[in-house]
From TrEMBL:
Subunit and partners: The complex comprises the extracytoplasmic solute receptor protein and the two transmembrane proteins.
Chief location category: membrane
InterPro entries in the cross-refs: DctQ (IPR055348), TRAP_DctQ (IPR007387)
Organism: Marinibacterium profundimaris
Record carries keyword Aminoacyl-tRNA synthetase: no
GO CC entries: plasma membrane
Residues annotated as domain Tripartite ATP-independent periplasmic transporters DctQ component: 40-166
Keywords carried by this UniProt record: Cell inner membrane, Cell membrane, Membrane, Transmembrane, Transmembrane helix, Transport
Protein name in UniProt: TRAP transporter small permease protein
Membrane topology category: Multi-pass membrane protein
Length: 184
């Protein structure tokens, strides 16, 4: 092997993918743990309500908040791992180049949608802060906490979609396996 030719090996990952993966997958792990905690809270409620006839006032609201946060924190991870629901009737008939173009269009639409939803959630959050809107429960939680989860979740989805678009534009290849049919 001459000094001019680099050694053969796996292709280097784009640095942007590594950074985005770390952020997005960490948020997905946090979202998963939130779902675990919600399950524990609900199990606790079942035991104290039916075992000791002493229901709590906080489990329902904490569980609702946890479900919202867990869902939106895991959103970008689903796109990262290509675990979104897809209809593959047309995709299966496309060639590699057409499939590449279709993915760029899909990521662009996802990015636009994520930006719009994050923007409107931000406006809604600011409005609820200005009027001090709260839940009508014993805990009286501020509504902005729910909107913040939507903003962060869709900002992460926007980050993931833009990363995929940029990497596809720079490298001319798909950064991961494409969307496809999953065998169940």
């Amino acid at each position: 092997m001459s000094a001019e030719t680099p050694p053969a090996g796996p292709r280097q990952r784009h640095w942007l993918l590594s950074v985005t993966d770390r952020i997005v997958l960490t948020s997905g792990h946090i979202g998963s743990w939130i779902f675990f905690v919600v399950g524990g809270c609900v199990a606790y409620e079942v035991v104290v309500r039916y075992g000791f006839n002493n229901p709590t006032h906080w489990v329902e609201e904490v569980s609702r908040l946890g479900m919202v946060w867990g869902t939106f924190l895991a959103l970008a991870t689903c796109l990262n791992r290509r675990q979104m629901i897809t209809i593959t009737v047309l995709l299966d008939r496309l060639g590699p180049r057409a499939r590449f173009v279709q993915e760029v269009i899909t990521f662009t639409l996802v990015a636009v949608l994520a930006a719009v939803i994050a923007w409107y959630a931000l406006e809604s959050m600011m409005q609820t802060i200005s009027v001090n809107r709260r839940t009508n429960t014993v805990m009286s939680m501020p509504y902005w906490v729910f909107y913040l989860a939507i903003i962060i979740g869709f900002a992460l989805l926007l980050l993931q979609a833009l990363t995929d678009i940029i990497v596809m534009a720079v490298t001319g290849t798909r950064p991961r396996g494409g969307f496809g049919q999953e065998e169940i």
